[in-house]
Structure formats: C-alpha cells, structure tokens
Specification:
The complex is a heterodimer.
Chain A: E1 9-17, E2 24-32, E3 35-42, E4 46-53, H1 56-62, E5 99-103, H2 121-125, H3 134-148, E6 153-157, H4 167-175, E7 181-186, H5 189-193, H6 195-204, E8 211-216, H7 222-229, H8 234-246, E9 250-257, H9 266-275, E10 279-286, H10 304-314, E11 325-326, E12 335-343, E13 352-355, H11 363-366, H12 377-386, H13 396-408, H14 412-415, H15 419-422, E14 430-436, H16 446-449, E15 454-457, E16 463-465, H17 466-471, H18 474-483, E17 502-503, E18 509-510
Parallel strand pairs in A: 5-6, 5-15, 6-7, 7-8, 8-9, 9-10, 10-14
Antiparallel strand pairs in A: 1-2, 2-3, 3-4, 11-12, 12-13, 12-14, 15-16, 17-18
Helix pairs in contact in A: 3-4, 12-13
Chain B: H1 3-8, H2 12-20, H3 22-32, H4 40-50, E1 58-62, H5 68-77, E2 80-85, H6 88-100, E3 107-111, E4 124-130, H7 139-149, E5 150-163, H8 173-182, H9 188-197, E6 201-207, H10 209-229, H11 231-236, H12 241-256, E7 260-268
Parallel strand pairs in B: 1-2, 1-4, 2-3, 4-5
Antiparallel strand pairs in B: 5-7, 6-7
Helix pairs in contact in B: 2-8, 4-5, 10-12
The chains are: A alpha/beta, B alpha/beta.
C-alpha cells in the first residue's frame, strides 16, 4: 500500500451554512486546478461544494489587501449564537458600514428570471409583499446615522424603488440628514418614460448632495435582455440614459453577469459606458444565486477573477487584469476596482484612456501585510477611500481623493509640466470599474461576511450584511415581519438540488416541508 | 532629443550630450516620474533583504529622490540613513517627509552629485542605488564613489535596467538612442565588470523582468496622459507621440525576448 497525496491545497477552515436548511456548518476552502473552492457538509443534507474564485494565485495575493476594520459608533444586536446568526451588526463584526441599502418595497414592474430579491409584480398583490412608509424610512436612516455619524452613501433599492409613491420624499429625508450621497437602484423603466420624475431627481442632484442612478444594464444584445430580464429593454435603457444625461444625472451601469448568457458582453458594456455622457462607472456582478435565478452549477459558476480576466481579453487595448486592485475595506476577494482617466469617447481619433494604477504603485499603499511604512500616508488615505465600497463617482469625497492622487503624480519641479493643473478636470474625466461577487447560500464564508461593509438597513432597526440578508434567511424573516405572513426559506436553483426543489409562486425555489 | 534623432539613432557622444542637457532630462523625469523606480517598495525590500541590512547599520541611498527608500530603511530596518540627490527640491521633500515621520534624527539628506558624493571615505555599511546608475553619464566614477564611501566588508545593492544591445531587434534602430537617453542601460555583465573593476565582489545577480514590463506600461500611461493633457508642452520638450508608441511596444517585445531586463545586483567590498 502506498499513500496518495490529496489533489488540493487546504487554505482555510471557516464557517458557512447549509444551502438547504441554512444551519451553520463548518466549511473548508481549498485550491485545486488553479481555482478556489469552498466545501462543506451538512449532517442532514450532505456535502456541497462551490467555486469561489477562478484564479487561485489572485485569491492568495489578494489577502494582502486587507485593511484593519473600523468600529461603528453603534451596534444593534448582541452576540448570542455566533456569525452568521446574530445580525446585525453585532459587536463581533469587523467593519463599519460603507454603504447602507434601504429596500423600499418588494413590488416591481418587471418579472426578471434573475432577481436576488425575488421581487416582481406578484409581490404587489401577494400576501407577503410590503412597502415601507416614510416614517419607517426616516427611522431606518436615523439608525444608519446613529451607527456611522456621517454616512457616505445610502442606496434605495427594492423591488423597484421608482414605483414607490414616496421615493422622492425619501430622497429628501436623506438630504435632510448628514448623509453625503444617494444612489437609486433601478431597472430604468420609469426613467425612460417619466421625464418629470427624472427632472425631480435632477433637481435633487446638486453640488455636495449628489444623486446617482444605479441602472441595471446587463448587455447590449437582445438575447441577454430576454434571458436575464425576460424582456427586450434595449430602447428603454437608452432612453433612460439619455434622459439622465439631459438633466445632468450621473449613472452607474450595473451588469449582472451569468455564465453562458452574457459573459461575452463585458467589454461591450465598458465601451458603452465610456461612450455615454451620463455613464461614469460600470459595476459587474457575477449573478448572486440567492432568490430567483436560472438553474446553475455551483462548481462552474462565475467569480470575480473570471470577470477580471474577461475584461483583459475583451478590451485588451485599454485594460489588463493587473489594472485592478482588491478593495481593502471589505474582504479583499469580494470586490476589485480600477479607475480610468479618459478623454473624449471611444472611436474619436483623440480618445485617450489611462488606468490610474499605471500612474502610481497602488500596492505600495494598500498592501497591509508587506507595508509597515508607506511612502505617503495622505495618498494611502486617498486610495483607501477610492478603493472602497462607499466610493461613487461624483461625490465630493471622491473628487477630493482623485485630486489628491493627481497631486501625487506631480512632476512640476522636475520637468516644468504641472500635471495637477493639467488634471484640474480629473474629476469630470474619471471612470470607475467595479467587479463585485456577492456571497450566496453556496459560497457564503463567515470570514468574508464578518468584514462586509455593505449593509441592508431593516425596518426594525438593524444593519444586516447584504450577503447574510440574502443567503441566511434574514430577507425571509423581514418579509414575514412586515407582512404578517409566514415566508418559506428560498433555496438555490442548483442542478445538484433539483430533485429536492419545488417552485414558489414567485419563481424562486424552496424545499417542501 | 528630436524625432529625427530618435528615428535615426545617435552615436555615444551625442547620446551623452543629449542626456546631460537639461531638456532631455526633463523629458526623462516627465516619463519616469520623480520618485518612481521599477518594482516599487516591494523590490526595495527585496534588495535590502538581499544585502542583509541590519538594525543600526549606516546606509547611503545614492540618487535618493524624495527619500522613499531611505524612510523605509530607517523605519522598517532601523537603519541610519544618508540620502544624496542631485535635485535640491527632492532633498527638501525628503527632509520634510523624514521630519513628518518623526525620524529626522536618523536620516540626513544631502544635495549632491553621485559622481562626487559629499560624504567621507570608508564609513558606510551599505549603499543602495535604485534605477539611477543607468542615467549617470560617468558610471565608473559613480561606482568608484560608492566603493570609496563603503567600509571594508560593506555591501552595495544596485537595481537597474539592463540591455543586451546585440539582441535588440533590428527594426528598433531608434531604440538604442531611446534607451541611451531614457536610461543608458548596459548588459548585467557590464555592471558586474564595473563593480569588479572597483574592487567590489559581486555576490548576487537577480533578474526582475516583470518590474520592467510594468515600468514600460507606466511610461506608456504617462505618455498617454501627457498627450491627453499637455500635448504641446510635451512636444516642445521633444516628445514625438507618433514615434513613442511604436517604440514602447517594441520595448515590450524586447523585454519579452530577453534583450531588456531589470537586474538586482549585490556586491561586497572585501575586508582587506
């Protein structure tokens, strides 16, 4: 008998949940075939494995970009059963909230085949649908302010927030508080058809109090729209973008990327964003297999590194995978970001584009393991704010940080060309690209979750990490509280689980009792 | 340097004259940045580790720029640092940064020339010179100066661009001039011979091509940024945008086929 070596490198032991019964269970993270997988076993439902990062080398390298967390001013719950059962935030959470999300309703004017919130038109009339009131919104904002002091950004989401009758008044509530910016997460239907509404948003978007539109934008092909949204939205998206540009609203294009549906459109979305005057940033999110989604295989699902490599392949004239750096405020494998300085629009003979990480050595500042000292602490602080979940193009804070970076590129002394002066328009010509993979019931890793800085603000006054909210059962809990109707736990639509699954009335899956 | 010269190459004398003249070094600063070197602080740490820098040792940073390496050596390695730079404003910035970091007592920065270091003989344990030797017109004198200030048993660590000129592709006849002016790079053997000729014993030669690859991307980015923001001024300084881009991509090819590289070299001054 000879011994045999294992075919994988054991990287860490952590905790996760059973995707079926949501019990907390141990999990191990392993590198195998240059990829990273999370594996766990539920005593009742057996073994589960999911691909969590497509590039093992990048996964390991990213761990250096891990900023020590900041304590919030206030936590909302006590530690009782341990993460992820005490949300939140509990005193053991490692990071404050960079971004607070308020879901104002569960109803939507679309019924997308893919929706982590499991929203839709049925929720409007369904027994467990709800809308928050203005008073509830005010209380939720006050919770956020109490925890953060002067929060950077609030995002309104849903459901579809633009169909909530009080959405403009809710934006006013934010602007009456010390919260710097508002993001409105929308499918764009109302923005395309209701110019008065767009004008009202534009009126609220003013210096020092920006309102940014976070527009679903999965691709430019009809098939992509049909597969992800169930409807060809191409003209609607274009009208929404044009209407925003008309009133000076900045827009983030947000693409949910699903394997074999639209991963080939990643470059096209970047190109489209660079070409449209309203678009100032693009966010790519591998589809979160929480809520409602198409059948998928957890072992081959898309991850951040797949999107990053796709960018390098699809727009090699502009970007390489090395132009992106992990975001240190959250767990560094959750989100990667780069910034581009641009001039003109693609196709112009004069078009210019420079990734900021090629102008200064980002890892000299944001590698928290190697760097006991950094060349310039003000530059580190500026980069920390830019490489953060609270960074949104167009906010004053972001503009100030970008200007600071321009100063770092100064060579006026040496060469007589004053770059900061030349870059006075830097804040108008900066484009941000974000790649963010959210945890789902298969991929949930408590080590990452404990440092999450994107929180759902709940009507009962808690701040729940976004991925816990979607994966662990908090979304169902809040829905039940708000509607008074019992809500079954949603289970991922994974090929391995098919024999167990039945459809809920909303199109998501559950396991019958 | 003009577009014509870039296109047709220069002889060595012209190159030296070109590099020594003010406007071309402005161009170099413009393209390389004032305090940048390939590999950043990661490669700096590798160099200091390779030299075995110990707490309390005295270190000279030749062409110290704004003091980044000196500060790192003082703070992370507890070294006592002297930095020398040809630019008075760099020296002032380095002093300011050291004071701000509260280590002004362990760091000194001097305005001076690498070819005539303003330092006495035989005192220093360690000398570093990062991505600067290639830009010194008189390399033998600069190496002699390094050897002079080192104590017997002291170490010198150099990181620099290397070029195997015979291997440079034929279509890059202009590249010789380009490299000569941006960086008068030599093959690693030539750097080793220079050190040996001044009584220094080479202990380690390490290739870090990836650092140079990235530097070329960074130069390309600076060129693009200048085109976007200050095209006319840069052209006045001698930058021909249409010519630079193909040269940069040819440079990337040269790195790939090994004609260009970035070497880390450690040598020791024998004890007696």
């Amino acid at each position: 008998m000879t011994t045999r070596d294992r075919d994988e490198v054991f990287l860490e032991l952590t905790r996760s949940i059973c995707p079926v019964c949501k019990q907390t269970i141990n999990a191990e993270v392993n590198a195998r075939d240059d990829q990273v997988f999370l594996r766990k076993r539920c005593p009742e439902h057996g073994e589960f494995e999911a691909r969590v990062y497509g590039d093992a080398d990048m996964y390991v390298a990213a761990q250096r970009f891990n900023k020590p967390g900041t304590r919030p001013l206030q936590t909302q719950t006590e530690v009782k059963d341990g993460c992820p059962s005490d949300c939140g935030l509990c005193p053991e959470h490692k990071q404050h909230a960079c971004l607070g999300i308020i879901e104002v309703n569960t109803a939507c004017n679309l019924d997308c085949p893919i929706c982590f919130a499991d929203s839709g038109s049925l929720r409007e009339k369904g027994p467990d649908g709800y809308s928050i009131t203005l008073e509830q919104c005010a209380t939720m904002l006050d919770t956020f302010v109490a925890a953060e002091g002067e929060p950077e950004v609030v995002m309104f989401s849903g459901g579809e927030p633009t169909i909530h009758k009080d959405i403009l008044a809710m934006i006013d509530l934010v602007q009456q508080r010390p919260i710097n910016a508002v993001n409105l997460n929308t499918n764009g239907l109302r923005l395309a058809s209701d110019k008065t509404f767009v004008a009202e948003l534009g009126r609220r978007n003013r210096p020092g109090r920006p309102v940014n539109v976070y527009l679903q934008f999965d691709g430019l092909e009809k098939d992509t729209h049909l597969a992800i949204r169930g409807r060809d939205m191409r003209e609607i998206k274009q009208r929404a973008l044009d209407n925003c540009a008309e009133v000076g609203l900045t827009v983030t294009l947000v693409a949910a990327i699903e394997k074999d549906i639209n991963e080939h459109e990643i470059g096209a979305v970047i190109r489209h964003g660079l070409a449209h005057p309203a678009a100032r940033s693009v966010v790519f999110q591998p589809v979160t297999h929480s809520g409602r989604h198409v059948e998928f295989d957890p072992l081959t699902r898309l991850t951040n590194s797949d999107v990053l490599h796709a960018i390098g392949k699809q727009v090699p004239e502009w970007l390489t995978v090395d132009d992106f750096f992990p975001v240190p405020c959250c767990a560094p494998t959750c989100r990667s970001v780069t910034y581009l300085l641009t001039q003109g629009t693609p196709g112009d003979p004069d078009f210019g584009l420079v990734p900021i990480p090629r102008l200064l050595q980002v890892e000299d500042y944001l590698d928290y393991v190697a760097n006991r000292v950094v060349p310039d602490y003000e530059i580190r602080e500026a980069l920390e704010k830019l490489w953060s979940a609270s960074a949104f193009i167009g906010t004053d804070t972001n503009d100030a940080r970008l200007t600071k970076i321009a100063e770092a590129l100064d060579c006026a002394d040496a060469c007589g060309v004053n770059l900061p002066e030349a870059l006075t328009t830097i804040t108008e010509n900066t484009f941000m690209i974000v790649v963010q993979d959210f945890l789902d019931p298969y991929t949930l890793n408590v080590r990452q979750l404990m440092k999450c800085c994107v929180e759902e603000i709940t009507p009962d006054g808690r701040l729940i990490p976004f991925c816990a909210y979607n994966s662990v059962g908090y979304r169902e809990q809040v829905r039940a509280q708000m509607s008074g109707v019992e809500v079954a736990d949603v289970v991922p639509n994974a090929i391995q689980l098919q024999p167990l699954l039945v459809e809920t009335r909303y199109g998501s899956k559950q396991v019958p009792r | 340097m003009t577009a014509h010269e870039l296109a047709h190459g220069l002889d060595a004398a012209q190159v030296k004259a070109c590099c020594a003249s003010g406007y071309s070094s402005d161009l170099v600063s413009l393209l390389l940045g004032s305090s940048y070197h390939p590999g950043g602080t990661t490669l700096t740490r590798r160099l200091l580790d390779a030299m075995g820098l110990q707490p309390g040792e005295r270190l000279v940073d030749v062409a110290c720029g704004t003091g980044t390496t000196g500060l790192l050596a003082a703070q992370e390695y507890d070294a006592i640092v002297d930095g020398v730079d040809l630019s008075a404003s760099n020296v002032a910035l380095a002093v300011g940064a050291a004071d701000a970091a509260g280590i002004g007592d362990r760091t000194r920065f001097h305005h001076g020339d690498a070819e005539a270091l303003p330092l006495p003989d035989g005192v220093w344990d360690v000398v570093v010179c990062e991505c600067a030797l290639c830009t010194f017109p008189d390399k033998p004198t600069a190496i002699a100066e390094i050897a002079r200030v080192l104590r017997p048993g002291g170490r010198v660590g150099i990181s620099d661009v290397t070029a195997e000129r015979d291997l440079l592709p034929a279509e890059l006849t202009g590249l010789g001039a380009w490299i000569a002016c941006v960086a008068d790079a030599r093959p690693p053997k030539e750097y080793e011979a220079l050190l040996t000729a001044h009584g220094l014993r080479v202990k380690l030669v390490e290739q870090h091509r990836e650092a140079l690859d990235r530097m070329v991307l960074q130069i390309a980015a600076r060129v693009e940024l200048l085109r976007m923001t200050r095209q006319q001024q840069a052209e006045k300084l001698g930058l021909d945008f249409d010519r630079v881009r193909p040269i940069l991509s040819a440079t990337q090819d040269a790195i790939e086929n090994g004609a260009l590289g970035y070497a880390l070299i450690v040598a020791e001054k024998p004890c007696a």
